[in-house]
Amino acid sequence: MTSTATASFTVDQWEPQATDEFAGTEFARVAITKTFTGAVEGTSKVELLSATNAASRAYVAFERLEVSVDGRKGSFVLHHTADDSGLALKILTGSGAGELTGISGTANIEIEGEEHRFTLAYTL
């Protein structure tokens, strides 16, 4: 059975690590930290790689969450892929630990102004 957990989050750190440019495409690496409150409670660290040019942009990231989900404490890795066609967030198979061992599922992020909302659809 799939469960849904929602939370708000803040971006506590956005720190560019490196940038490069090749044939009109800019590459960037960014370290990010977040804090979650709600049915997902805790923190995360993100390693993000992006590529941007005049025609498109894309990123891939791995986010290590140390959180409780609906009261279960543990951790897991969320794999981000995004481009101009959309965003996909998937729990990396086998990455769950603690009371989140065996977790699988997907997530969604919605941003409205300064508010960031996180929705996790998961099975345990």
Automatic annotation (TrEMBL):
<dbReference type="InterPro" id="IPR021607">
    <property type="entry name" value="DUF3224"/>
</dbReference>
<dbReference type="Pfam" id="PF11528">
    <property type="entry name" value="DUF3224"/>
</dbReference>
<protein>
    <recommendedName>
        <fullName>DUF3224 domain-containing protein</fullName>
    </recommendedName>
</protein>
<dbReference type="InterPro" id="IPR023159">
    <property type="entry name" value="SO1590-like_sf"/>
</dbReference>
